[in-house]
């Protein structure tokens, strides 16, 4: 029985949960054989059971007239199947204006455009024409670069619940043969012959050598290996996510992780949890590299109090007693205090904190000994010596912690409570007149506590921005 690509394609959509009947699909078409074959397969599927289908193409302009010819070819294909066509042109100057390299910038621009077009067209899925050869080439490239299990999982059939690759288990030659039987044609990208690019050297030099000298079925073997790695990686991800929920703490001073808890984990889970720790504290979408993770492992292994390493210009990892902390850059202190009206709010964007104040009656608040909530303070409004302001600490600040017999230096309070030195400048203080009323997130001043004689209560709350 001959291989039926259309039936295999429909089976992959169902078996890999890539598409549900009726969902709108956007075909990312370059004009090459893979995406052209994918477009034809989806068009046939639409004939069997109608659903919204459209075609999208990004013209990078990197090959001049050849790029423009690709655009015209894809537009013709869309018209032939009576599908709407969405295109954008970007210039080489736009791509070269980035710091990440031309190829990486072009790839990022393409995926950004695909997401935007999916949103504007209401498409649930963006279909990409990657085949088994793309998978095997990707695994080899990542192996040569020293990737771990996650990287060796290769290309995923579904990413972010939107990008799908129904042909990932099918060879490129199978797709070409299918197109020829259907009377189809395609475009060839001349840049795929450029041996300065690593993927092309793997495709035209390494893969032919492996097929000829080692295993003629090497593409299938590598693709199957990538699947094993990916499935095992997904299982380890589940374990890591559970550990992250239980062990990673997002506190006022930054992201915290217990060093003793890290040390008892198997090495594989410890590295994964450290990567998750970094990804949670960083807005950078790029995964942490080996050197960064290794630097964190060294801190955990040695566990020296106050030992630190700069991970990036905007991020530092530091050991504070038994915790590993990720701290943002130290911001310059605000020159003036920020007013906190009652009722009202005060925002401190450099600290990622917003404070709110409101007034309530004692009966509304209840017993302050019972209703204590982290991130909230209850103050006697009539005991406050002036309007509320929010500022950072200053040299010589004095404070009378709740229950203390007298004033002491704020610095001494921080030392007694083991508040790390880098964290102290990032703790807001609510002051009334010349007195500290609340060390936000820690303690109120005893002189402003709620008592049985209190008639009006100021309720202060802290929220992370």
User: What is the number of beta strands?
Assistant: 22
Structural class: alpha+beta
How many structural domains in the coordinates? Answer: 3
CATH-level-2 architecture of the largest domain: 3-Layer(aba) Sandwich
Poorly predicted runs of 5 or more residues: 330-335
Q: How much helicity do the residues have?
A: 40-55%
In the sheet with the most strands, the strands line up as 3-2-1-4-6-5
Fraction of residues in β-strands = 15-25%
Could you explain the architecture of this structure?
The structure is a single chain. By secondary structure, the chain is α+β, with helices and mostly antiparallel strands. It folds into three domains: 5-227, Rossmann fold; 252-327, Uridine Diphospho-n-acetylenolpyruvylglucosamine Reductase, domain 3, CATH 3.30.465; 338-464, Phenylalanyl-tRNA Synthetase, Chain B, domain 3 (3-Layer(bba) Sandwich). The protein is built from 16 helices and 22 strands. It has helices spanning 5-15, 33-48, 65-80, 92-96, 102-121, 132-144, 149-152, 172-181, 198-213, 218-247, 259-263, 267-281, 290-302, 362-365, 410-416, 421-424; strands at 25-28, 53-59, 84-89, 125-127, 158-159, 163-164, 248-251, 254-258, 308-312, 315-320, 323-327, 338-339, 344-348, 353-360, 376-380, 388-391, 398-399, 408-409, 429-432, 435-439, 443-444, 457-464. A six-stranded mixed beta sheet has the order 3-2-1-4-6-5, sandwiched between helices. Strands 7-8-11-10-9 form a five-stranded antiparallel beta sheet. Strands 12-16-19-20-21 form a five-stranded antiparallel beta sheet, with no helix packed on it. It starts with a helix and ends with a strand. The relative contact order is 0.08. Residues 330-335 have low confidence and may be disordered.
């Amino acid at each position: 029985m001959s291989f039926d690509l259309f039936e295999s394609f429909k089976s992959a959509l169902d078996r890999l949960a890539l598409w549900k009947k009726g969902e709108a699909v956007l075909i990312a078409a370059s004009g090459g054989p893979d995406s052209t074959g994918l477009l034809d397969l989806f068009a046939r599927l639409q004939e069997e059971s109608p659903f919204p289908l459209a075609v999208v193409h990004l013209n990078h302009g990197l090959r001049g007239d050849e790029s423009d010819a690709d655009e015209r070819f894809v537009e013709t294909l869309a018209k032939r199947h009576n599908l709407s066509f969405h295109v954008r042109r970007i210039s080489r100057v736009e791509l070269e204006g980035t710091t990440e390299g031309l190829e990486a910038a072009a790839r990022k621009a393409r995926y950004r455009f695909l997401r935007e077009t999916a949103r504007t067209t209401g498409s649930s899925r963006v279909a990409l024409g990657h085949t088994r050869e793309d998978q095997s080439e990707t695994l080899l490239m990542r192996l040569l670069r020293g990737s771990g299990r996650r990287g060796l999982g290769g290309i995923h059939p579904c990413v972010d619940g939107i990008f799908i690759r129904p042909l990932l288990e099918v060879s490129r030659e199978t797709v070409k043969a299918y197109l020829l039987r259907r009377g189809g044609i395609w475009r060839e990208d001349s840049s795929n012959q450029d041996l300065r690019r690593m993927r092309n050297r793997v495709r035209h030099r390494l893969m032919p050598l492996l097929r000829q000298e080692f295993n003629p079925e090497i593409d299938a073997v590598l693709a199957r290996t990538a699947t094993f790695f990916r499935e095992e990686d997904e299982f380890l991800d589940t374990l890591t996510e559970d550990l992250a929920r239980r062990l990673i703490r997002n506190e006022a001073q930054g992201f915290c992780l217990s060093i003793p808890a890290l040390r008892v984990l198997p090495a594989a889970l410890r590295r994964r949890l450290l990567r998750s720790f970094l990804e949670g504290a960083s807005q950078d979408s790029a995964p942490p590299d080996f050197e960064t993770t290794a630097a964190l492992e060294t801190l955990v292994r040695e566990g020296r109090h106050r030992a630190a390493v700069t991970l990036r210009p905007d991020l530092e990892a530091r050991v504070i007693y038994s915790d590993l902390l990720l701290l943002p850059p130290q911001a310059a202190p605000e020159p003036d205090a920020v007013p906190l009206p009652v009722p009202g709010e005060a925002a401190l964007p450099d600290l990622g904190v917003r404070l709110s104040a409101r007034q309530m009656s004692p009966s509304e608040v209840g017993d302050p000994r019972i209703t204590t909530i982290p991130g909230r303070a209850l103050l006697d409004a009539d005991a406050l010596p002036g309007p509320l302001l929010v500022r950072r600490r200053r040299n010589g600040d004095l404070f009378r912690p709740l229950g203390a017999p007298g004033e002491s230096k704020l610095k001494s309070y921080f030392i007694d409570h083991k508040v790390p030195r880098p964290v102290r400048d990032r703790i807001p203080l609510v002051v009334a007149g010349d007195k500290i009323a609340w060390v936000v997130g820690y303690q109120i001043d005893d002189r402003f506590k709620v008592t049985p004689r209190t008639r009006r209560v100021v309720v202060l709350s802290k929220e992370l921005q």
